[in-house]
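Let us practice reading a record.
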Amino acid sequence: MRFREATAEDADVIAALHAESWRRAYRGAYSDAYLDGPVHDDRREVWRERYAAAGQQPPGGAERRARMYTLLAIDDDESLLGFACSFGADDPKWGTLLDNLHVSGAAEGRGIGRQLVAASALWSERAYPDAGFFLWVLDGNARARPFYEYIGATNEGPTEMVTPDGGGVTVLRYVWHSIDPLRQYAPTIAEG
């Protein structure tokens, strides 16, 4: 297994894993009609927009895209095992947003999620040294919450968020007040 930064050519494979992960983890939080229907097309559009050609404006604009870091975990056969996407210094108070962390069902339990989070936090520390590091977790995501707590994040409380299918859900802000607990999980990142 190796880790490398994503490129525009990876958008569709990232979208496929993103949709598969949501179908597994967000059942009951997002509508079945959305998860069983347009979730893959929706995620593909999001990822293609994130990697849009210069001159096109993805959600958040070119400035936000410039602060995006997406890291992939790739198996020996070149299949995508997982990915993490962060937006540096995305919030003036909380810092860098770990916007996505998804690992394929077949690769769960191998430590890939920990490594992706650690590498993303270390990227943020280098690129945005004064920014914190945080993410949003669905309140009902019983598997994710203990995972983030185990690797050093603290639940800073809930808020309501609109889901891509137009519903509403309670999310919790998880924050690393120090990324030191993550350093032990940091993988080596392939260049290029």
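A brief commentary: The longest strand covers residues 80-91.
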